[in-house]
Amino acid sequence: MRIDVVTIFPEYLAPLDVSLIGKAATAGILDIHVHELRTWTHDRHNTVDDSPCGGGPGMVMKPEPWWEALTALVPPGSEDGARLIVPTPSGRPFTQRVAEDLATASHLVFAPARYEGIDRRFIEAAAERMPVEELSIGDYVLAGGEVAVLVMVEAVGRLLPGVLGNAESAKDDSFGHSSQGGMAGLLEGPVYTKPANWDGREVPPVLLSGNHAVIARWRRDEALRRTAQTRPDLIEALDPAALDKKDRAQ
Ligand SMILES: COC(=O)c1ccnc(N)c1
To answer: Quick one: which atom of ligand 1 is closest to the CA of 140?
Structure first.
């Protein structure tokens, strides 16, 4: 997968060079390129923004530099498999399922905006050439979309084959939200490791029983319990077929 990020703060994306995403890039699984938006400006001040039409506070990012950047990174005729991702608080929620969908793309271009956002006409023109996803990482406003790009690249990148070692395989995501396996759509329950007794607190005996069927049932019950307590909306969203009769009895 090729990833292009266009930003006026390239240094914000430096963390992409470390940890698993950095390893994936080194291994050639991810081909990540960060670009300075001002590369595609031509005036003396490298202007990327201007005052909002119709008045109002702040500044709006001009469409021209973004359009030139997108055209350079996705030349006409090479749109197949390319998707433009625009991080914005007014986008649809970025979820594990969205990450799994984006992981199927061959080319992602991220357009993190600063200020009050990007002139709408850029989004509309881009949507005539390739799928455009306006995505939010949560219900809060950031100074810029770069942090959201880091979140999305990590969530998507870790799903690509070969990025995670077997030990951390994404198909058994241990922090919930995986849409695979028996925990599909549930939050993960509590996890434990050695010692069996710490601070006078015992590991649940079932986990030491060696009975894998009973352990799997206990883990699913705990996942259901935590999901019902923390995110009852996820229970509502569950496919009824995914709940067996024991679940329904709960
Ligand atoms: C400027 O971008 C944001 O403020 C932003 C982007 C993505 N998700 C959010 N919740 C905020």
So the answer is: 10
Q: Which long-range contacts (CB under 8 A, 24 or more apart) does 195-198 make?
A: none
197-198/201-202 β-pairing: antiparallel
pLDDT score, position 85? 98
Ligand 1, atom 11: nearest CA belongs to which residue?
89
> How far apart, in whole angstroms, are the C-alpha atoms of residue 229 and residue 225?
6
Q: At what angle do helices 63-73 and 120-127 cross, to 10 degrees?
A: 30
Residue 219 burial (CB count, 10 A): 19
CA 184 to chain centre: 18
Instruction: Indicate the residue type of 75.
Output: P
pLDDT at 163: 87
Amino acid 180: pLDDT: 46
Ligand 1 site, CB within 6 A: 87-89, 113, 136-138, 140-142, 144-145, 148
